[in-house]
Amino acid sequence: MSTSVPPATVTPLPPLAAQAERLIELGVHELAGITAEELRAFAAGADDAHGGALLAVHPERAPASALAPLLRREGRPGFVVVDMPDVDDFAPSGGIELPDTPLYLVTGPDRGDHMANWSPEEALPALTEQGRSPMLLTEGIHWVLQQPEVLERNNCFMTIGSRLRKANGTLDARTPAIWISNGTGRDGRERRDAPKVGWCWWGNRHTWLGFGSTTGREG
After folding, report:
1. For residue range 17-74, what is the model confidence (pLDDT) as tens digits?
2. N or C end of the chain, less CB within 10 A?
3. Mean pLDDT computed over 10-20
4. Which of 6-10, 51-55, 111-115, 124-128 has the lowest mean pLDDT?
C-alpha cells in the first residue's frame, strides 16, 4: 500500500500548562501518585518549542482502566469493553521505549485518517517507513481527554503501540482502539455515543479506524 499520503491535520493541542490543569481537574495526578504542583512544574519546565505536544502520564502510573472512565462524550463516561479485562496488560511493543519518568511528552500526535481501512499488520510497517511511532492506548486516551473532538463518528483510531505478549512469547492478535459506542450488544443502550476502549484483530480492516501515531516521546 502507498505511504505517500501525508498525516491528517488535527486542531492544535492546548498549551502544556492548560493540559496540566485539565489533568488536575480530572484527578489524574492523584491516580498517578504525584502532586498537582509536580504536574504544573513539569508542564512549565517542558520545552514548548514542540508546539502541539501532548502531556502524558506513564501507563505504569495511570493505566488505561483508570483513565477510560474519565472520558466524556455527550455526557456519557468512557468505558472498556467487557471482553478486555486484561486491558492494562497491553504494554509498549515493537521497540517503543518510554521515558523513565512519571510524565512525558508525546510529540506530533496524528489520528492517521489516511490509513482508514488498513489492517494493523499493514499500517505498522508504513508508519515505521514514515518515521512515526504507533501510539499507545494510554496516549490515545490522554489525547481524547485533552481534545474530545479528536474522537468523531467514522473517524476514530487504533493504538497499536500497545500489544499483549502471551505466556508463550507470542503477541496476542488483539489490538487496542478507541471509538464511539453504538449502544448495541453488551455495551448496553445507555452507553450509546460514549467513548469506548475496545480491540480489533491484527489482520482486520475497518473503514472508520485510522492509526494514532507520534513523531516521538520525551521526558
Report:
1. 999 999 999 999 999 999 999 999 999 998 766 578 999 999 999 999 999 999 999 9
2. N
3. 89
4. 6-10
CA nearest to 127, candidates 109, 142, 151: 109
- Please say whether the beta carbons of 96 and 124 come within 8 A: no
Residue 173 lies in a domain: yes
CA dist., res. 196 & res. 144, Å (int) = 11
Residue 5 placed within a domain? no
The grid coordinates of residue 59 equal: 501507563
Structural domain boundaries, residue 90: 16-218
Residue 3: inside a domain, yes or no?
no
Q: What's the distance, CA 176 to chain centroid? A: 9
Domains identified in the chain, total number:
1
Give the DSSP H/E element, type plus range, for residue 175. strand 174-180
Nearest alpha carbon to residue 84 among 174, 208, 179: 174
User: Among 53, 60, 59, 23, which Cα is nearest to 38's?
Assistant: 23
Identify whether the C-beta of residue 41 lies closer than 8 Å to the C-beta of residue 20: no
Task: Name the residue with cell 517503543.
Answer: 96
The set of cell numbers assigned to 211 is 492509526
pLDDT in tens, 83-103: 999 999 999 998 999 999 999
Measured distance CA(5)–CA(183) in Å, rounded: 34
C-alpha cell at 170: 507470542
Q: Is position 83 within any domain?
A: yes
pLDDT category of residue 11 using cuts at 50, 70 and 90: confident
The reported pTM is 0.94
